[in-house]
Amino acid sequence: MLAGRKKRRMAEPSNLNVSFEFFPPKSEKMQTQLWQAVERLAPLQPSFVSVTYGAGGSTRGRTHETVKRILRDTSLQVAAHLTCVDATKDDVNAVLEDYWQAGVRHIVALRGDPPDGVGAKYTQTENGYRNAADLATGARRLHDFEITVGCYPEKHPESPDFQLDIELLKQKIDGGARRAVTQFFYDNSVYFRFLEKARAAGISVPIVPGIMPVLNFASLQKMAQTCGTTIPQKLLRMFENLDNDTETRQMVAATLAAEQCLDLASQGINHFHFYTLNRAEMAFALCHMLGVRPEEKSAD
Length: 300
Ligand code: FAD
Hints:
Elements lengths: L16 E6 L5 H14 L6 E4 L8 H14 L4 E5 L6 H14 L3 E4 L22 H11 L3 E6 L10 H13 L2 E6 L5 H13 L6 E2 L1 E2 L5 H11 L5 H6 L7 H21 L4 E5 L5 H10 L10
Parallel strand pairs: 1-2, 1-9, 2-3, 3-4, 4-5, 5-6, 6-7, 8-9
Helix pairs in contact: 4-5, 9-10
């Protein structure tokens, strides 16, 4: 929490929104795990669930199948992630058109990472969308999609400074994005500082914290390094010597994620986006602690 930040009343559970992010499964086993997670989390009536798009469009077919199945078999609002990588505007527009015809009305518009991996230079595909703002604008021009975009409380790794990121976020909003979801973070003060910068720049749309509970600390450390997310000393200390102790690790992870969410909620945050990694338990427990429960949540 920022020093001196005033505690606000936690939003009533009926005013709390949650959303869940899934990735398209690769195998039968992963498929089963995903649908178990969807079924477990659906009664919480999330504002939406989203399905990621593999780097460079590598999961294009699987993303489509997953999005369409959620649409067909559940009453959830589903958002399809889409990137600009290795695709012309015509390619991307064809995907958008296909989604629209299938009844998908919500897109998470992203630039995507360079095909050679994070850290490599990003080159716009010839006749492709330049970045997420350009994609958001193009999608809205095509159809009346609801658009969500990404943002980076610790700055995007490619950006020299926050100013460029904030400027690009403004362009995404001007292009028609209705909300931004943040990259995952573990220090809430970092999120609130970013929120202040965005508000000062006149960005008024919801900036929804992306919550990534620690399911596997070793792989999380690698991912965090790539994404530019800081792992606070406190977290490092908490997971010390737990590599071979799954049970304790899970309890520590749940406690820390609960602390993070409850602190955000106590400061007035009323929408949480959970990176579920296709597992329901942690997200369900966190929602329960926030007061978002199957029988209590009224429709948005
Ligand atoms: P943008 O904000 O468009 O740009 C990213 C960076 O590129 C900028 O911060 C800036 O440094 C630079 N840049 C862009 N335009 C310009 C310009 N005109 N001039 C100068 N510099 C510029 N990736 C996937 O592959 N699939 C997913 O499903 C996926 N889901 C995600 C969901 C969320 C909520 C988030 C936060 C990220 C997700 N990502 C996903 C990762 C994302 O694709 C990468 O972080 C990517 O590097 C940036 O995408 P963006 O949409 O934020 O890009």
